[in-house]
Amino acid sequence: MVAGPGMAKGEVHVTRRVDRWAGGVPPAIAAFSVALGLVDVASALAPERSRRVHEITRILPLGVTHEASAVTAVAGVLLILLGNGLRRRKRRAWRAALYLSLVTAGLHIAKGIDVEEAVLSLLLAIALISTAKQFYAAGDPRTRWRAPAAFVLLATASLGIGWLLLVARGGSIVGYPAASARWVEILDGMVGVTGPLHFRSDGTSDLVYSVLIGLGAMTVLVPAYLLLRPPEPPARLDPEAEQRLRGLLAAHGERDSLGYFAVRRDKAAIFSPTGKAAVSYRVVSGVMLASGDPIGDPEAWPGAIRAFTDEAKRHAWVPAVIGCSELGGEAWVREAGLRALELGDEAILPVDTFSLDGRAMRNVRQMVARTERAGYCTEVRRVRDLSHDDVVAVRRQAAQWRDTETERGFSMALGRFGEPSDGDCVLVTARQGDRLAAVLHFVPWGDDGLSLDLMRRDRSSDAGLNEAMIVAAVRSAPEFGVTRLSLNFSVFRSALERGGRLGAGPVLRVWRGLLLWASRWFQIESLYRFNAKFRPEWEPRYICYPAARDVPRIAIAALEAEAFIVMPQLPRLRSPFRRRVSGDGLLVELSSVGG
Q1: Is residue 527, in this structure, part of any structural domain at all?
Q2: In terms of pTM, does the model score above 0.70?
Q3: N or C: which end of the chain has fewer CB within 10 A?
Q4: Residues 266, 222 share a domain
Q5: Residues 281-336: pLDDT tens digits?
Q6: Is the separation of the CB atoms in 541 and 317 below 8 Å?
């Protein structure tokens, strides 16, 4: 037990750890489902036991046994695909797997009295029923990319199963057809057309046709459903939640320089039971990614963190935090049982001690003087004081100067400019004559601070313009009651700095070398050097994660959230289905393929 923030001396708070990340029964059930799926596929492809087939055909027509084999193969593939959802405790996956296991138990009897396989199917059904409470997670936000991903996966599996089917029935094929003829047979069969191969018996021909057309139907129908169904909307900050966040920022916004970015509109917010604290987040690729510290009163942070982790647990999302301070990291470690890793440092300029004097500031001083001689003039204003024409001009120019098609940012970007609700933001502009050459945009950091949001300039403008605008912001800060400015965030700053010093160890030097190599694609070293030239105070920032095995997934989610990894947008299609689809359907859960 440890003391919580804001608690009286002697008061304790029981450390609450999230149990979802420890594994447990669902991974074992998922493995069982995958194994049973493989058994189902193998059983459907293997030659029938003649005695058992003779017995079942006394009751059922031979065509029914062939159809049962085809459906068994399809059901086996679906059970394999459902393994990922079962591992993540998805309720829909549990329901779909239960239905399939019961159905396949009957199919194994119908296709040849395969008692052993039927018993395995019933055992999976019993295991699912007995562990039903372990599968509580709701579905993930939908993405249209699951449709093409499912198509590729199903098509690959179907082609592979079709090939294995022809291999298993090779003795019934007339002649010695080439591999190309076999592939044509598979492709034709999947679309319901008779292929070039000939079989020695009508029974084998019917079986091959039934299995292939079943696989083809599954390959087309499942992705088509996933593509046409209406997607769940992405995270959006509704007006009521935004106003509540602004109220918390007005009372406690001075604690975290990233606090104002919580009102970014493509984030969601979850509040503590008292409403005195909140966590801003977005769900990316199954990761519930929070940014910065919780907003609001630190005494209410535990409630907001518990609400966050409970929501992550309900959906079986991986909880993670990017860019939290040391105080916030301690709260996440204590309340959520997460681990913390230093991610980098935030550069902060104290206005009262900042000066261009001295040798250390020579480079900045020279750049500022150079831009002044080139005829550049800077201006610092509150956004509320801008005219409509000014806002339109800045928006247009900033969009033109952007070096990527996608607007980057998540943890330290607002994603908008010039709205009336953001009137306290500060804009720094640089002009050469009548030409707008560069802009800086700062968001409020409490009542006495500013945090850098946007830095854009015309590529044809002179070097040093960004430095001149930052110096202009510092010089004008007292007019706005500002005593501190937060600049860019430098990832792994300490490794870059210490790794280049005399006496640095081999591990640190290798790590620094990797960072320098990565700087070819990401602004790691250049951003550090830009910040360092202002001689700032460095404040460490952390990433919090449940376990080491989750770090790669969280890293990819963070890069996707910051738009360093951008998935192409698929065209939106109007769905013929209703807006809400029942969770009882098998196809609903197959949306978790790959996720």
Answers
A1: no
A2: no
A3: N
A4: no
A5: 988 878 899 988 999 999 999 999 999 999 888 888 889 999 999 999 999 999 99
A6: no
